[in-house]
């Protein structure tokens, strides 16, 4: 029997993160559960007899503490950057960044950067839970990542997810030769607690009677995460791509120069090498 795989899933206290944790645990993986809500995170971990950590991505000090704790693991075979949120109003975090950008992109960028030596040593798969919103915003302006000129929740969320896709692309370019694999995916509109504090349109989709008509279950939303986490051979020649319904979809993230500059700008913002 091979070495037990260790899978770290953020945003695993609810929704597709919890569903993916259950599915991967059932396959025999050692799952490490990360969430923002202490009670919910511990409940999922107890159900799976799993290790858990609590971190609020709106505070990068907590992300650094999380990275230090995870770095004590013997290996990390899969890092699923699944945590995310969309803020109805522009809000600045304790770190001085626009919250939607920080929670969806800067925090997972920092966590992954801090764990890179362990991820490379483990020849890990790094998975980003992205969104189709990344394809609907018409690009990204590196000079206005903080949405200072105009804030609209869907645009800010799409921008953060596109930044995440670019990070995925650049991660594969920089470290693929060392065995690191990366992918991003859109889970569908998942019927979970996501969007409760977001725009009227998002709340209508997630928290009204329309929910049953246009959303998928957390288990259905977790399908691609589990598939990407358990199908490394598929990545041969495809690392760094963005997926919808298990199919590669081209996005602005394929602009290599823009992805490189996005990486450099993100590293500058969070103080990562």
Automatic annotation (TrEMBL):
Superkingdom of source: Bacteria
InterPro entries: SDR_fam
Keyword Oxidoreductase: yes
Entry keyword set: Oxidoreductase
UniProt protein name: SDR family NAD(P)-dependent oxidoreductase
Gene source species: Tessaracoccus palaemonis
